[in-house]
Specification:
The chain is α+β, with helices and mostly antiparallel strands.
Length: 215
């Protein structure tokens, strides 16, 4: 099994329509678009649609990784806690003959919807192309390696792999994270000192290798 893909909350947030619906919960990112297609027109999709692009970890008990429950004061039964309304695969509060429970595994336990990991901490990094003097500030996941960061940067430079990546004059290990390469996350320091992080952000410098075979 390959290395999982990491996503920033901002990346998840743009998938916020019925035709392209992602959510995150308990540290993972899920593409629920197929679920929406399957249950299109079902009123029980409404809470999910309203949560499109958001983190819904508060829907779950993190210890058992299942929907939160509470004791119904009238029946004394333990039932799912769904303050935003009952949603797909949640059973009705009372026994009902018209509820189909032959769907198999509920969507929140179905890993086929999982597309990656939600970053525990994102950070911004400045990348300077010494050949063109162009600068880009991009948001990355702190868990990502430099190779994965390079793939993010391809949006701005399709030949990014033809450059040597350096920080403070040192070649960077492309199989290591920013922190592992000695590029500390200074967000807290910037905040405490009320410094403009865009101005003082650590900069990675790219040096052209005169080789366009990698694109």
């Amino acid at each position: 099994m390959g290395r999982p893909k990491y996503f920033t909350p901002n990346e998840v947030s743009v998938h916020n329509t019925l035709e392209d619906l992602w959510v995150s919960f308990l540290g993972k990112v899920y593409d629920l678009t197929p679920l929406c297609e399957k249950y299109k027109g079902n009123i029980q999709l409404k809470p999910i649609i309203e949560a499109a692009g958001k983190d819904i970890s508060h829907w779950f008990n993190p210890k058992i990784k299942d929907i939160r429950t509470y004791t119904d004061p009238i029946t004394g039964c333990t039932v799912p806690y769904t303050p935003h309304g009952r949603f797909v695969h949640i059973p009705p509060p009372c026994p009902s003959t018209d509820w189909a429970n032959d769907f198999g595994r509920p969507w929140w336990k179905d890993e086929t919807y999982c597309v990656g990991i939600l970053s525990k901490k994102t950070r911004f990094v400045k990348i300077i192309n010494t050949l063109t003097s162009q600068e880009q500030v991009i948001e990355v996941c702190s868990e990502e390696t430099m190779e994965e960061l390079l793939h993010r940067y391809l949006t701005y430079n399709g030949h990014a792999a033809s450059y040597t990546w350096k920080y403070d004059g040192r070649n960077l290990g492309m199989d290591k994270t920013l922190a592992d390469n000695g590029i500390a996350d200074e967000d807290e320091d910037f905040y405490e000192l009320r410094m403009n992080d865009d101005t003082y952000l650590q900069a990675i410098h790219l040096y052209f290798n005169d080789d366009l075979t990698e694109a």
